[in-house]
Design brief:
Number of strands: 0
CATH class: Mainly Alpha
Number of domains: 1
Helix content: over 70%
CATH architecture: Up-down Bundle
Order of helices and strands: HHHH
Largest sheet: none
């Protein structure tokens, strides 16, 4: 039961941290600090999400049940993959030598970020349904 609590808290923190990073990127681009805050918050969000995944993995392992047997788990894996890809994609915007590729990379980064946030929200809803809260 404690692993479930740690999982829920970690994932809730991951979601709120990621949403904060998105809000900063969307509404605070005129500030000098926006990019640094966006990066830091997203790295923290990924760390919380990985921790939440680890708690979930051990929670399911302790029951002896199969992994990825419910929609919540499949959505969670897809979300985690996107969350792990996003920092590399964001970093590629600044490291690419091809200046013509930058607008495309930015567009993909923005859309995948939105998809990741929506997927994370859907995963939370699926988890609340699984837990019998919704």
């Amino acid at each position: 039961m404690i692993l479930l609590l740690f999982h829920a808290v970690s994932m809730g923190l991951a979601f709120s941290t990621m949403v904060s990073a998105i809000v900063i990127a969307r509404y605070f681009k005129t500030k000098k600090w926006w990019l640094k805050a966006h990066r830091i918050l997203n790295i923290i969000a990924v760390a919380f999400a990985v921790a939440g995944f680890v708690f979930a993995f051990f929670m399911v392992s302790s029951t002896g049940g199969p992994h990825i047997r419910v929609p919540h788990a499949a959505l969670g894996i897809a979300t985690l993959v996107l969350l792990l890809v996003m920092p590399f994609l964001g970093s590629a915007i600044f490291k690419t030598k091809d200046k013509k590729a930058i607008p495309k990379l930015k567009k993909v980064h923005r859309y995948l970020g939105r998809i990741a946030a929506l997927l994370m929200a859907a995963t939370i809803v699926a988890g609340l349904v699984l837990a019998g809260i919704l």
